[in-house]
Amino acid sequence: MKKFLNFMKNPMLRKFSLLIALLFLYVFISAQSYVTAIAKDLSQSVFRLHVIANSDSNEDQTLKLRVRDALLDYMNEMCINCSTKEEAMEIANNHKEDFQKIAEKVISDNGYNYSVKININNFYFPTKNYGDISLPAGNYDALRVEIGEAKGQNWWCVMFPSLCFIDISSGVVDEKAKENLSDNLEQESYNIISENKKSPIKFKFKLIEFFAENNFFASK
After folding, report:
1. Under 8 Å CB-to-CB from 212, ≥6 apart: which residues?
2. Which residues partner with 142 through β-bridges?
3. Strand, coil or helix: 214
4. Structural domain boundaries of the chain?
5. For 174-193, what is the mean pLDDT?
6. Residue 147 to residue 125: CA distance in whole angstroms
């Protein structure tokens, strides 16, 4: 305590400590502003899909994927001429009942009577990789499908641009989807989520993850 009091009496040390504190605050605020801008750009350009299975049983997980495939086929057909997330979301909202019926039909055709809950809203997503595209954690607009008790593992992907359509065996995303995503994003944002990251870009990606996972900012 005595050393601390002596330290506080030293005007040079006090000024130095204040400068360090102000520098830290400046860096923190600058980082937060940067991350918020990138997160907003991503959120405004991507419309995602979140399917939750009834349970983790093999049967329920298989059913989840069949529901996913049917919904994606329908969305891909409806959005074939879409160039922005807003267009895709408008279509999804206008055809919400169709998504409901499609999911219910797949479930019924496979011999189940699970209920289905469809919700289009803004949800938190963890960091996910789609081939050579990585989307950082954050809040994104999405169509959420809850099957039955919705206590099983999730399927997270991107409805627009259609990054769901990946060759799973090779882990390659369709080039047209990446081109569409690039067209809808600022160059800085696209560089951050693309696989070919240099060290500074990787650091920025981790910075975005840190802020998102610790709720330092709201994405909208």
Report:
1. 35, 39, 136, 137, 138, 219
2. 48, 121
3. coil
4. 40-213
5. 76
6. 18
Question: What CA–CA distance (Å, rounded) separates 92 from 7?
Answer: 63
Nearest residue to 62 via CA among 22, 99, 106, 32: 106
| Residue appearing with tokens 């999804």 | 92
Structure tokens at 129: 């990789």
User: For the chain, what percentages of helix, strand and coil (3-state, to nearest 5) are there?
Assistant: 55, 20, 25
Give which of 37, 46, 150 is closest to 92, Cα–Cα.
46
Q: What per-residue confidence (pLDDT) applies to 106?
A: 97
Are the C-beta atoms of residues 53 and 64 closer than 8 Å to each other? Answer: yes
What confidence tens digit (pLDDT) does each residue in 39-82 have? 777 877 889 999 999 999 999 999 999 999 899 889 888 888 88
| pTM of structure | 0.71
pLDDT band (50, 70, 90) for residue 219? very low
Distance CA 21, CA 19 (A): 5
